[in-house]
């Protein structure tokens, strides 16, 4: 089966998570599956990678068409390890990161370990997808994500969409049957404001625990991922990595002359 | 001195680093300075933030016009802590992150803790700058970064440039007198390829240590930060956070119909 497809999976919740088990089930329909995911949960790790310490890799499962590895690095480290070491002589057809517990829409794409891994995957010449559900509960319902994930994978593979291609896929926390379909849209403008919970540890030392809320800067706009999810759509944002603010190049060139 | 300016400094190399000492020296010329930086080096932390554990803050220095705090979080946590807790009732005129040992030009902007903090700072309505020198050595020469940093700060404050404004400033590792001036430019397209160094730990367990090299996808382009630095310029890239690939919205809308 020389032409069998190879799908690489990772996430930021760790190799034992329910989300990756769901993705394995979906991805196996399309070919061989290799999973290389963090040993422990790594939420909020963004595009972080590890240069200051050594990392450990172990194989945790192997069966026909499936290999699963756990790695002590970040989600991005997992992708680098997979492509630059483990799979370096094999063509990968698709990278999928997720299914994440919690939305990575809007500015969350910047902070997300799930999307950090998906973005990293897109640097290796294959299409990549990050899939997240707007539900942090351990028993989040992944049926919609699996159903639409399958459709998105099928479309990418059958249409052979040109690379680089990185999709940020986010689903609202509603039952699969109530989802209205896929909406291709743009990243909502907004930011987080944090509230630090203050407490004292058992030795009387003050500590802070970060918590916050997202502020949507454009709640009325109807072409954004936040809007699409609120309306019951599966939001799909194509992601690129040029962060240059091209509109300000001329103004700043003049200012610094 | 009600109108005295307030400059907030942070970095990813930790509050004890030479880079932040250099920034303090520069920034104090412009007003009061508050530093809140990581307890320990946090390179490669990107936009990572900490939700899984409590964080500890301590004041390490206070004198006329200067306060320095150390925080156990990431660079982004430091910015959130400063704005949402420590400084919440004070107007901040400028955020500066750095001076980093090592360039954050090109795609490094995605991985950089220095730029993660600068980007985070720009979410709080004040201009922000990340400054990095393309020299990882502990005794890197910061004279050029201090000189041009001062010029950039002065320009931003005197011209009152509109926000959001986030500048990624990178200097080549050459003496200050050889720098040719400021070049406003765009982020170079490219990616990293890693080589994992394999060894065995004292107990015979295999480990991996990440190392890699940057691949410039457009070495001939003359409007990029990589090109500017190679020519001896101080590269200044305005950074924005919409990662949507707007050029592909129509094509993908059609594909997923």
Secondary-structure blueprint of this entry?
2 copies of one chain form a homodimer.
Chain A: E1 6-10, H1 18-27, E2 32-38, E3 57-63, E4 66-71, H2 75-86, E5 94-101, H3 108-111, H4 113-122, E6 128-133, H5 143-159, E7 166-171, E8 182-184, E9 190-200, E10 206-216, H6 225-230, E11 234-238, H7 249-255
Parallel strand pairs in A: 1-2, 1-5, 2-4, 5-6, 6-7, 8-11
Antiparallel strand pairs in A: 3-4, 7-11, 9-10
Helix pairs in contact in A: 1-5, 2-4
Keywords:
homodimer; 257 residues; 7 helices; globular; nine-stranded mixed β-sheet
Summary of the model, kept short:
The structure is a homodimer of 257-residue chains. Chain A contains 7 helices and 11 strands.
Structural write-up:
The structure is a homodimer of 257-residue chains. The model of chain A has no long low-confidence stretch (mean pLDDT 96). Chain A has helices at residues 18-27, 75-86, 108-111, 113-122, 143-159, 225-230, 249-255; strands at residues 6-10, 32-38, 57-63, 66-71, 94-101, 128-133, 166-171, 182-184, 190-200, 206-216, 234-238. The first copy, chain A, starts with 5 loop residues before the first strand and ends with a helix. In chain A, helix 1 (18-27) crosses helix 5 (143-159) and helix 2 packs parallel to helix 4. Chain A is of the alpha/beta class. In chain A, strand 1 (6-10), helix 1 (18-27) and strand 2 (32-38) form a beta-alpha-beta unit. The longest helix of chain A is centred in the middle third of the chain and has 17 residues, at 143-159. The first copy, chain A, is globular. Helix content of chain A is 26%, strand content 29%. At the A-B interface, helix 2, helix 3, helix 4, helix 5 and strand 9 of A face helix 2, helix 3, helix 4, helix 5 and strand 9 of B.
């Amino acid at each position: 089966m020389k032409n069998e497809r190879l799908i690489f999976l990772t996430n930021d919740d760790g190799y034992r998570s329910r989300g990756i088990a769901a993705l394995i089930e979906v991805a196996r329909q399309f070919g061989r599956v290799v999973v290389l995911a963090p040993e422990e949960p790594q939420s909020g790790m963004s595009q972080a990678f590890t240069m200051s310490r050594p990392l450990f890799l172990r194989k945790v499962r192997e069966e026909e068409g499936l290999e699963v590895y756990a790695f002590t690095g970040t989600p991005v480290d997992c992708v680098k390890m997979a492509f630059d070491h483990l799979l370096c002589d094999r063509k990968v057809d698709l990278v999928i990161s997720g299914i994440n517990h919690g939305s990575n829409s809007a500015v969350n794409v910047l902070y997300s370990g799930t999307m950090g891994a998906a973005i990293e995957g897109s640097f290796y010449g294959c299409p990549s997808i990050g899939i997240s559900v707007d539900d942090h509960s351990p028993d989040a319902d992944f049926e919609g994500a699996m159903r639409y994930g399958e459709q998105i994978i099928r479309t990418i593979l059958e249409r052979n969409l040109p690379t680089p291609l990185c999709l940020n896929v986010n689903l609202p926390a509603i039952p699969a049957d109530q989802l209205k379909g896929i909406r291709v849209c743009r990243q909502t403008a907004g930011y987080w404001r944090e509230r630090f919970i203050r407490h004292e540890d058992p030795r009387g030392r003050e500590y802070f625990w970060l918590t916050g809320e997202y502020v949507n800067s454009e709640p009325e706009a109807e072409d954004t991922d936040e809007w699409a999810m609120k309306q019951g759509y599966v939001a799909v944002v194509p992601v690129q990595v040029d962060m240059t603010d091209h509109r300000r190049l001329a103004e700043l060139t003049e200012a610094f002359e």
